[in-house]
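Example 5.3 — Corrinoid methyltransferase protein
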Amino acid sequence: MSDEEDDLILSDLNDEELVEQMFDDLYDGLKEEIEEGVNILLERGWEPYRILTEALVGGMTVVGKDFRDGILFVPEVLLAANAMKGGMAILKPLLAETGAPTIGKMVIGTVKGDIHDIGKNLVSMMMEGAGFEVVDLGINNPVETYIEAAAAENADIVGMSALLTTTMPYMKVVIDQMVEQGIRDDYIVLVGGAPLNEEFGKAIGADAYCRDAAVAVEMAKDLIARRHNQRAAG
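Solution (predicted structure tokens):
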């Protein structure tokens, strides 16, 4: 099938069919189709926030569930997340103009001494896919970088990743420093990485250990909602 026929088909669909098709295209990691779908919905007068939540976040929710259930694997999820990023690139400036709400803001990075980033990148993409604003600090981050970035970005969540047993303990260094500075309770701290487990997360004082990107999104949503409720009650 030629590209022209594809183009014709997308624009021939009604809104509901197009969103369904975008779910499929996201699932299949088809970036150009997602970008086209976003542009078609914008032309039809959809609000950027509505496209984000209904078409992109809706589609990534399906991807996240199938990843969690072992139906999809990392390479496929990265492709889906990359397609999502294509759509997000179009929407981001428009969302900024309209002051659309984000669920929360996260700074995330791999800890000092560790240069692994596939897991972290996956979490970043899935969090963006769920409607969070994400600031990715990259790899090999010392404690100062986390603390400065969290303050500068006014973050709700600090995410730390490690793939080596030798760099895992550095997560505690960061949390201890936060405690020392009296800012620990200002942030939700999420930790993840292959060698970690729930006991380790508890032992170092993190809010939650996330075994994969899908769990990280669920945890983040849950903890943010709880925090909002506590503030409302307070």
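Remark. The first strand starts at residue 105 and ends at 110.
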